[in-house]
Design goal:
Strands 1, 2, 3, 4, 5, 6, 7 and 8 form an eight-stranded antiparallel beta sheet that branches. The chain is globular. It has 206 residues and is of the alpha+beta class. A hairpin with a 4-residue loop joins strand 3 and strand 4. The longest helix has 21 residues. Helix content is 30%, strand content 26%. The N and C termini lie far apart (43 Å).
Length: 206
Amino acid sequence: MYFLAMRDHPFPAAIIPMAGPKTPIGNAEFGGRLKGTYGTGFAQYRVYGMYALVFLLRGGGRYRDRRGVDRRLSAGDLLVVFPEHPHQYGPEAGDDWDEVFIAFKGAAFEAWRAHGLDPVNPLWSLSAPETWARRFFGILRMPHASRTESTAVAAAIHQLIADALARRPVTREDWLENACQLLSGGADAPDIPAIAGTVGMSHERF
């Protein structure tokens, strides 16, 4: 199905240059909407050399990577591409494919790896897909000619990552990170039973 956002915010199938002046918080490189394409194809694994967020608007397909992830994709799935991580994705026989994506790079984006952005979990199914589609299209429409505009685009991508991370399923690494942050509070840190409760565990299991 098409999301409501596709009717409210029509966007042509095209790749759009987004590179502006360099900023300390990273930069978008390009993005766009791709309809009826083959993704990366499945002949070989691709190493992209930058980050990308790929959101499937319509249809379905498959994602595979060298870590052994092999999963069907459907509308509403978000795929995170990592610069150094070999992967492949696209439609299988009989599938339609309609994606919106944003490619970006910069050291500031690397910092998200310490806060849940992990090649082990490159696929997330997002609720309220119409809202996510609108956000992607909104970023693609942002001006980027000046340093101020380029910074605003990068900040919008950071916010997109933060919000997606907040909505994905909790993993072992998430509760461990939260527990370590709470334990590092020194004299102001909560006691162990309180920390265990915060991360969703019993005192004994923690």
